[in-house]
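Section 3.1: Structural characterization of target chains.
Under the original work plan, the team committed to producing a structural model for every single-chain target entering the pipeline before any wet-lab resources were allocated. The record below documents one such target. The sequence was received from the expression subgroup and is listed exactly as submitted; it comprises 311 residues.
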Amino acid sequence: MANDRALRTPVERFLRFLTIERNFSDLTVQSYRCDLEGWIDYMIELRRGECPRPDMISIFDIRGYLSAMYEAQYAKSTIARHLAALRSFYKFGMREGWATENPARPIRNPHVGRSLPHFLSSEDVLRLLETPDSVSPPGLRDRSILETFYSTGIRVSELVGLNTGDLLFDEDLIRVRGKGKKERFAPIGSHAKKALTLWLEARSHYVKRIHENDDFESPVYLNRLGSRLTTRSVGRMLEKYIKTSGLDSRTSPHSLRHSFATHLLNQGADLRSIQELLGHKNLITTQIYTHVSTAQLLEIYEKAHPRAHVK
């Protein structure tokens, strides 16, 4: 799971401040919590799973967040409330000393665009999936990881946290432990199931001590020492295959999650369904993918339409 304490810790201190020193009601504090957690999730998703410190967030980041709310057709009063929560949070940060300015203070309108997440085309994803060899145990493991990423759209922290008891192949599902220890079920496609099955057959090469009955807490993905694979190891593994396949060096495990969501949206899936599949709390976090699709459409239009430019 992405280390999100950089944002959540100051938020928790801020909420305690509202409760103890400002004597806000439980309902009001809960409202602030929900608004700020939605903002945290958005920032982590936008930064490809990396959680920035609150003092690293700029006015443009906050404008992008408010713009996403506007485009998701949130009520103006709701957008104003979120902006007020961020202003109060950064005012508290200036009081505590971890913020030198309040980036939310000068913002009036949420109509400014935002940076788009990096994703791969369908062709590039296929190229990446076929890069690991399909014979050796390391290759089978790595191919299974890439297939599972793209098939389910899960986070890298959720992937390394998978246990053998979470693979519900008879139901074409896997059990995913998301943020806040919340569980959800993610559909898994036939290609990923096949890759997982082949890896599980070769998995004994990575296990020091195999029990006759593999319990539900046994990790699906192991390193060469037989221990649970780490998120850092997955990142290094992907970096190796990105270099081998000659794909964009910006590609990270989170890029495959972005690719999953973008390709679903391009094929007609609705945002609410994608929100459920990604495990997002708020629709505004999922809304970022509409920008990716729009940008792709504009690129196609610019290249293909004979009168897109004045000659």
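The chain has a mean pLDDT of 84.
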